[in-house]
Structure formats: structure tokens, C-alpha cells
Amino acid sequence: QLQQQQQYEQQMQTPTVASNGTRIPVAIVSWLRENFSESPDTSLGREVLYGHFCDMCKATGQDVVNPASFGKIIRSVFPQLDTRRLGTRGNSKYHYYGIKCRETSTLKFPQDQIGGAHHRFRGRRSTAPSKTDPSAPNLVMSEYIDVSVELPPPLESRPAFREIAAAIHGHFNEILDCVKAGEFQAVEDRIYNFWSSDGPDLELLRQEAGCQLFAHCLQSLVNVLSKVLMVNVVVSMPEPLTKEMRHFGKNVETWFMNAYRTRGILEPETLSSPILQKFARALRRYTSLNHLSQAARSVLTNPEQVKSMHAEIGLLDFEAIQAQAGDVTQCDGRTVEEMNREFMDGLQNNLTVEDWAEWLQLKTADYLQATHSMQARSLVTRWSYFGSLVIRDLTLRSASSFGSFHLIRLFFDEYMMYLAEQIEEHGDAVLRLPPGQRRNASDK
Questions:
Q1: Is the Cβ–Cβ distance between 422 and 438 less than 8 Å?
Q2: CB 172 within 8 A of CB 221
Q3: What long-range pairs does 157-165 form, CB within 8 A, spacing at least 24?
Q4: Average pLDDT over residues 189-200
Q5: What are residue 100's DSSP bridge partners?
Q6: Given a cut of 80, is residue 198 above it in pLDDT?
Q7: How confident is the model at residue 47, as a pLDDT?
């Protein structure tokens, strides 16, 4: 303890140099180390912390720097610090993540300015939310993802690689368990712990055969994660879960790359990056479309909005729209008339998001059958152009339901593009799946 105290006192007296080369006064370094310490599970509000810094500077005669310069200073003292935006939608604030107040500090932070992993979405300890409170933070993960999918064992017959293959499989199972529990932030720790451990012989992954093995296992993990997370694109998911999934997809490649570089083993990067990037794109598309489907659901469950849409779409001159769009869409007037009638009937019958998704799948199947092709993207182009003309006419008429139509049109366009991507990858069998259900790369 005496040695630790001496080391601490020595740190307090050592000036720090910021990343821009500026020397930081010892008093500022001392103040930061006296009042704060690194903590991976805690965050402090950036604005309040900067306010305390300004108060200290005024009290001690130090020059007050702007918030950006203060950010460089505090990261020079606490290199592992991260900046994240935490809080509920519309009321979120920037936090310094990875730092906490020392128990001996006299500085005060409001309760809403103290956060961390325990304040974020946690699925492992969740229970069913109250049906009367849709914003309840406790969620049952199995209601929104498929927790039954398991990671297949590695098929490794080479004796030299059996141990590392088993270690990778165990590591990826830990990641899978975190995802199933909704503990997405814990994945970063699992990755770092594996690559900084002394257990398996990670040096084998420098070899080409080792890189191939790791890439094969990573592809299996990604296939399983896709099945677990991307179950149904139109299912109603809580916003906290959607945000966590989006953040996970955005950062998982960075977590792996940082772990490789920390260990000094860069060889797996080349094969890993394309796998993780493709997964990130798919997850981003899934969460974005899911978010859009929920916005469309809010419109379709509002009787007044649906009634207004039905009345105003009936006032449009679809013959004139078809005459203008004919050269691009190459669609005959009878088809346009039929689709317009089906759309109006759907509004009148209060179809759900799932019903409209099924309708779009049927229309896509009809098009592919009529054209004897698998070029679903050509349908998306024609559909989008025709929809833009409809929206234009609604705009010129100052339609009161324009906002509702715009949301529905965005959902239709995005869902059609989603179908086109799925058809390109898996064929027209995806059109026979239940509405919104995704077919994954490893599905037969």
C-alpha cells in the first residue's frame, strides 16, 4: 500500500503532454487524478464535468480552455476514456465513458449525469415488461430474437490447430451468450480478454492456415448472430434494443481490429474485415427497416389518419400519373388501376404492417413471374419512380395526410429494396416466407 501511495504521489507531480504537444499544468493533472479514476462501467456527464473544471480553474487562477481542449486534456490523463451519448431519446447527453468520481471527491453530479453499463439496456436480468408501460426497460429477449440458435462446433482435424480451434469456439460462444442476453457492450470485453490472454497459442493465427481457421469460425459466428438477431424485420421491437443492436453492428469490427493490434497479431484482419463489414451492413439495414416499420405502424393504427389517406388518394388522377410514368415504368394502365384499387381496399380494411408486407411480397412475385426474370431491382426502380409522382401530386394538392403517405411510401420503398436484396442472395424462395421473416446465408 505504501508503494502504491508513493507511485500515486509521483504521478500527481508529473506533468502530462496532450496529443497536440501542449504541456498540461501539474495542478490540472493533480485535480483530475484527485477527483476521478478509470472505471469501465461508469460514465459522467461531459457538460457537468467541464463545469467543475471551469470552477477549479477560476478558483486556482488557471487558464480556462474550451470544451474540445479539455477533452484532449482529460484523455491524456485517462487514455481509455470514450465519449458516448446516453439517455432517453430527445433527452440524451454526452458522457465521458470509463471514468468515475473518487469516493474522496467533493464534486457533485446529478443522478441523470451518472451512467454506465448498469444504466444501459441489460437483458440478462430482465423480466416481462408491463403491457401498460411500453417504455419499461426490462425486456424478455426471447420475445424479439431467436435465442435457440447454437454455434456449431469447429471441424478441425489438424492436431496442431485443435486446441486453438476449441479456444476460438469457446470464445465465440461467450460472445453469442452476451448477445442472447442483450449484453452487447460486454462483447467488447470478451474480445479484449481473449486476445490479451495467455491461454491458447494465438501465435498460430499468424500462419495462413490459422487465419483461414479463424475466418471460418468467425463466419460461423456471424451466420448464427444473423439468425439470432435478424428474425423478422417488421416485428415490434423496443427502441433501446434497436439502438443497442445498431451500436453493436457499428462497432464490432472495430473491437476485433483493436484486439488484433493490441496483441500485435494483424494477420487475421484481411479475412475478418469483409465478414464483419457485411454483417454490419445487414444489421444496419435490418434495424433501419424495423424502425421504419414501427413508424408506419403508428400511422396504420390511427383510424383518423387512415381515413384521411383513403379520402385523398381517391382524388388523384392515376390515368394522368400513368401517362407520365409510362416510359419509365413500362406498366400498363390495367395493372396501375388494379394496384390502386387494392391499396384503397387495404386502407379501408385497416391492414396491418404485416399485411402490407405480405402484399408487397405478392406484388413482387407477380412481377417476377410476369417478366420471367429474377431482376427484382428493376421493379424497385419503377416502383420508386411511380411513388414519387404520387407524392408529388399529393404535395401539389396540399394533402393534409401528406406526412402519413410519406412514411408509408418510405416503408414500402425500403421493404421492396430489402426483398430485392434477399432475392439476389437467396432466390425467390424468400417470397414464400412469412412477411418480414429473413432468410440467412446459412439456411438451406
A1: yes
A2: yes
A3: 158/209, 160/204, 161/204, 161/209, 161/210, 161/213, 163/200, 163/201, 164/200, 164/201, 164/202, 164/204, 164/205, 164/210, 164/213, 165/213, 165/217
A4: 82
A5: 37
A6: no
A7: 86
The predicted pLDDT at position 17 comes to 44
Joined grid coordinates for residue 331: 406498366
Long-range CB contacts (within 8 A, 24+) of 81-90: 81/38, 83/46, 84/43, 86/43, 86/115, 86/119, 86/120, 87/112, 87/115, 89/239
In the block, cell 464534486 appears at: 107
Reading the block at residue 127, the C-alpha cell is 423480466
> pLDDT for 149-185, tens place per residue?
999 988 777 888 988 999 999 999 999 999 999 989 8
Instruction: Identify which of 334, 338, 444, 323 has the alpha carbon closest to the alpha carbon of residue 389.
Output: 323
Distances in Å between the Cα of 425 and the Cα atoms of 216, 278, 291 are: 20, 13, 23
The DSSP secondary structure of 16-52, one letter per residue, reads EE-TTSPEEPHHHHHHHHHHEEEEEEEEEEHHHHHHH
- Taking every pair of C-alpha atoms in the chain, what is the biggest distance, in angstroms? 88
**What pLDDT, on the 0 to 100 scale, is given for residue 300?**
94
Q: Cell 406484388 appears where?
A: 363
- Determine the pLDDT at residue 139: 65
Element (H, E) at 85: strand 82-86
Give the pLDDT confidence score for residue 371 in this predicted structure. 73
pLDDT score of 287:
92
Report the 10 Å Cβ neighbour count for 61: 7
Alpha-carbon gap, residue 309 to 294, rounded angstroms: 18
d(CA 414, CA 291) in angstroms, rounded, equals: 11
Rg, the chain, Cα only: 27
Query: Rounded to an integer, what is the distance from CA 114 to the centroid of its chain?
Result: 23
Cell numbers linked to 194: 481473449
* Residue 63 DSSP class: P
pLDDT in tens, 268-325: 999 999 999 999 999 998 999 999 999 999 999 999 999 999 999 989 988 888 888 7
Residue 134 has pLDDT above 60, yes or no: no
Grid coordinates of 379: 421493379
Grid cell, residue 204, equals 498460430
pLDDT-wise least confident of 50-59, 130-139, 329-338: 130-139
